[in-house]
Amino acid sequence: MKHLLSITDLTRPDIEQLHQLTDSFAEVSKRSIPKVPALRGKNVVWLFYEDSTRTRLSFEQAAKRLSADTMTFSVGSSSVKKGESLRDTVLTIEAMGVDAIVVRHGSAGVPWQIAAWLEGRVSVVNAGDGWHEHPTQALLDSYTIRQERGSLDGMHIGIIGDVKHSRVARSDVLAYTALGAEVTLIAPPTLLPPSLAGWPVRVSHDLDAVLPSLDVAYLLRMQKERMTEHLVPSLREYTARYGLTLRRVDAMREDALVMHPGPMNRGVEISAEVADLPRSVIIDQVRNGVATRMAVLYLLLGQGADKVLGSDDITVPELQEVVT
Ligand code: CP
Q1: Which helix (H) or strand (E) holds 47?
Q2: Does residue 196 carry a pLDDT above 90?
Q3: Positive or negative, the Cα torsion across 271, 275, 280, 284?
Q4: CB count, 10 Å around CB of 77?
């Protein structure tokens, strides 16, 4: 495994093996010294052209727990401001000596472009490209459901809200269905992609009708600019039809989970009270993000790097603590 660009690159056994590795790194994260020397001497750079809290910080935490060195690139204080191109920026960073580039960019396809420029010399991880994909989010989301329920097989997962502009929705649909779940997209027609040909999903415009059959209600962030684009009449109207309120939670199965990739708009797609209910696993998603990203970096740069994901036995022999 050289890169992680898309969930489409992963089979069900691949994802299951990543989840097993995530179990090991979750165990490391609980230790008094949550650090192992697995990636000592490796250098990882964060190339974020878009804002991020969860993804960037959890990748950084993951790299530190694996003893990797890290470099942070900030667009706002870089030579991008002087007009330096993406290609020149990437080749400049490579010349400094890096083993992996974790990239977030507003344009779909940029991680693939970077991987092509680097011709296999550096691993590339897609940390979110435009409206296209966010594979590590899907890995941590599916891991969280598996942690709560044991398996995704036969589960009914509703992805609710702005699917059209959501890279999380695309990656989640691929991961959830690969793991045996059924997915229903629940949104007004204006917030769905113009074509869903090839998407292995059902579609509903009626949240109240679907809610009682869901095992997971996965809310997407409602981006306020969609209102000015006239995709919804008003946020209040959107919340009335698609917001997860306490009243709606009453209609859910007792063991159904509430999830959200963050950042949340409390009071819009999810009420403040619902976000803090015991059935809400939003903070668990964030916590699992660190162990998931440890597993991904370990696979790309550690002993998993020369193995075939999903078929070779990938062990984690270096999981002894760093002794200082
Ligand atoms: N879920 C997610 O990608 O959050 P950030 O934008 O904060 O990284």
Answers
A1: strand 43-48
A2: yes
A3: positive
A4: 8
pTM of the full structure: 0.95
Cβ–Cβ under 8 Å, residues 112 and 103? no
Report the Cα 218 to chain-centroid distance in Å.
Answer: 13
Rounded to the nearest 5°, which phi and psi values hold at 53?
-110, -65
Q: Ligand 1 centre and the CA of 287: distance in Å?
A: 13
| Tokens 């002087």 sit on residue | 82
Asked if 101 and 91 touch (Cβ cutoff 8 Å), the reply is: no
Angle at 127 between CA 279 and CA 61, to 5 degrees: 70
Distance CA 225, CA 211 (A): 27
**CA atoms of 126 and 132, how far apart (whole Å):** 10
- The percentage of residues in the chain with a pLDDT greater than 70, rounded to a whole number, is 95
Q: Is 194 helix (H, G, I), strand (E, B) or coil?
A: coil
| Distance from C-alpha of 293 to C-alpha of 300, rounded to nearest angstrom | 11
**Residue 324's pLDDT is what?**
56
The answer, yes or no, to whether any atom of ligand 1 lies below 6 A from the CB of 289, is no
Q: Is residue 223 predicted with pLDDT exceeding 90?
A: no
Residue to substitute in 54, 56, 61, 285 for testing ligand 1 pocket (most ligand atoms within 8 angstroms of CB): 54
What value does the mean pLDDT take over residues 141-168?
97
Please choose from 50, 53, 56, 140 the residue to mutate so as to test ligand 1's pocket, defined by most ligand atoms within 8 A of CB.
53
- pLDDT tens for each residue of 235-244: 899 999 999 9
Cβ atoms within 10 Å of 323's Cβ, excluding its own: 7
